[in-house]
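ugh ok fine here u go
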Amino acid sequence: MPQTFRDAKCYRSMLFVPGHKLDWMLKAPKYGPDALILDLEDSVGIGEKPAARIAIAEAIKELRAEPVGLFVRVNSWRTGCLIDDLSAVVVDGLDGVMLSKAEDPEDVAALDLVLGELERSRELSFGSIEICPYPETALAMYRLYEICMASQRVKRAGAATGPNPGGDGGRSLGLQFEEEGAVEGVAFGAYSVLQARAAGIVQIEGAMTGRLDDLDLVRRNCQKSKRMGASFASAIHPSHIPIINEIYSPSQEEVDEARGVVSALAEGIARGQAAVRYNSKLVDFANVRTAMDVLKKAEAAGMNIGDVPKIEIPAY
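structure:
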C-alpha cells in the first residue's frame, strides 16, 4: 500500500515568545518568523500562568490577520494546567498547540478529543488545530511513531539531530555532550526522523540552541539538521530567525535545478520517454518528486519559481 504523507503548511522558522509578555508577542512578527510559539510552559512561572492565558488569547486575536502561524506551547497532562490552557487559547486564529512532554500515544489521543469538542462548541473549523508533540524523555523518543500515529492532527515532529545539552531529552538518555551540536545525539535524531517519516510526517524540526549570541552555532546547527532531514527550526531569540530562514529556504540554484529536472522530464514524456538525460544524469519520476518538494518549499518561502510544466506523477 502506498505511503501517504500528511499535508501541512511549510514553516521555516518558529519563534518562541513568553506568553506573559503581551507586548513581545505583538511585535514578534516583525522579526520575520514564519510562525510564533506563544509559550505557557517553561518560560512562564506558575503564578503567572492565569494572566498569560489571557494575554495569549488577546495576542491571537490581534495577530490572526497577520501572515504568521500562531501556535501555543501548553503544559503537559498531569500538571493540572492543560485544561485551563486549552479553555483560554482555543480561539479563532489558533493554528496549533505544542504538547510539552508528550510521553504516550494516549496523551495525544486525549488532546485530539478535547480539541475536537472545543472546536465544535466554539464553531471553529473541525480538525483545523494541529498537535505538535514534544518527546522529551527516552520513552517518548522510543514511542515517537506511535505518538505521531495517535492523531491525524500531528503534522510536524522530530528533532533531526537529537537532544541538545542541558535539555530534558539529553538528561533522560544520560548523554554527556563534548560540545553543543556534537555527534552524541545524532543517532537519536536519525531515529526520530525515521519514526516521524514512517508516520507520514515530512515537516521535521531541526536543532535549536539556547546560546543567544552564537550565531555561527545557529548556522552550523541548521546546516547539519537540514542534512539530517529537517525542514524547519525553532528559536528563542529573534536574531536567529534570519539565519534559520536562509538555511531552510531553497537557494536560487536549487530552484533552477529543480525546475530544469521537471522541464526535462516533461519534454521526455511528450516524446514517450519516462527517463531522460539531464545535466549528465538520468532523471525519472523519483527525481521529479524530489524537485517538486524543492519548488513547494520555495513557493512557501515567497520565491518566484518561474514557469514549471505540469506532470502527472504516478503514486508511490
